[in-house]
Amino acid sequence: MGSTITLDNSLNPEERARLQPAIDATASALKASSKHDTTATPKEEIVISYPDPSLAENTELVEFITQSINAIYLSAEAEFWTEDFIRTNTSQVQDFIRSGHLALAWRANSDQSNPHDIMGCVYVKAARGEFGMLCCDPNARGTGVGRKLLQFAEDDVRRKGGKVMRLEVLQGKGWANEFKQQLEDWYVRNGYVLERVEAFESKFPEIATLLAKPAVARCFRKEL
Question: Which Gene3D superfamilies does the UniProt entry name for this protein (predicted)?
Fold first, then answer.
């Protein structure tokens, strides 16, 4: 969860049903990945860049990215939200691509217009030293794509004069989500430190009513 992202909350039953196979597959992969050796050697070369803005008009690509992000978030954060919650939509993804804020990770030597070669993405707002929506294909576990996306975001902020990178992690209030704790631990291993904890209702009032359980935003930072 990043403060730079505006969420769309219009998921209807038909959209949820269409996403369900991807959600189930993502949940299985995430469960398996929690037991995976995080020191796995990358098996393939990865290229990360901001796609050409013209790819915002590639309907298949945009829909693939949108569905992948929503499936990953619905799996990882299902415990937090009511059924009305959705992470993003195609219009938002198009805007991110056009504005040059959504970086994509591809398999090396792949056709960048082919959605099935995408391994992950990250939204970067370099001017504010923030990133969010870092998502990886669960099938790419062990390739190092998550760490490379994080490094790409940090390097982009550095190139543009930023000195600090920030992010927020959604976590339970009075209870703990295991996956989110693993995610926090991963960020700590990558140099992030907890700066403060904010009431979710104060930080994201526009979607607080969609919470199924009490939650907080745990805010991390890293000096670059």
Answer: 3.40.630.30
Task: Describe the chain by its helix, strand, coil percentages, rounded to 5.
Answer: 45, 25, 35
- For residue 143 the two structure tokens come to 């390739």
Question: CATH number of the domain at 13-162, please?
Answer: 3.40.630
What are the structural domain ranges in the chain?
13-162
Q: Supply the DSSP symbol for 40.
A: P
Looking from the CA of 165 toward its CB, the CA atoms found within 13 Å total 24
Beta-strand runs (E) in the chain: 46-49, 102-107, 118-125, 130-136, 164-172, 193-199, 215-223
Total Cβ atoms within 10 A of residue 118: 21
**pTM of the predicted model, to two decimals?**
0.81
In degrees and rounded to multiples of 5, residue 50 shows phi and psi of -80, 125
pLDDT digit string, tens, across residues 137-177: 888 878 999 999 999 999 999 999 999 999 999 999 999 99
Q: Which residue has the tokens 């959600």?
A: 23
Residue 7: exposed, middle, or buried by beta-carbon count in 10 A (0-12, 13-18, 19+)? middle
Residue written as tokens 């990250």?
122
55: left (phi over 0), alpha (psi -120 to 50) or beta: alpha
